[in-house]
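Mods, move this if it's the wrong board.
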Amino acid sequence: MQSRTIRIALAAARQRRSFRSKVMTQQDIQVLFAYDRWANNRTLLAASALSAEEFVRDLGGSYPSVRDTLVHIIGGEWIWLTYWKRPPATSAALAELVARRRVLFNPDVLPDLARVQSTWTQVEKVQIEFVDGLTDERLHQMLPFRAAHAKLMYLMLHMANHSTYHRGQIAFMMRQLHATPVATDFHEFLVEGQHEATPTKWHLTEQPPY
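Not the wrong board. Structure tokens:
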């Protein structure tokens, strides 16, 4: 009976290790965040075609202008990076971090594209340093998240997804302003950067099947 229990435990451990190896590696995270930076920079470049008035024009929505939405994206990336580097130990420390974000990334203190771009360049540098310093083991570190805990890699996926969501809002805003948005799809990044990808039924140089 004990021997059978040990065999089951060992099989379960092997299955967990196998699953872990298939989830996400440091190299995968590097590609994902290289994509995030590429997409942010393309979005900023597209926004440079707007006039100063168009850049801050209130178009409605939760973040009413292109400027405000860009600031929200960058502020989100900053607070998550800060959180991952040194998770707040208390609720008071977390509240202080959130308050710092509100001050540093208040749209009123980033009035134009040049200031927004400069701020993003600073955040981008910190992001590169952080991602380059990760290990596969660190990605599995459990961090406090609301009333629970989550692996670092899942929180990093959340951040990348958050930025993608709001870049989509900016693309819609650009059309409202009769400007041309840029494509920031992941497959565009793969083609442009010639990053590794597993071929499917369509070739990377062709249009995806949707």
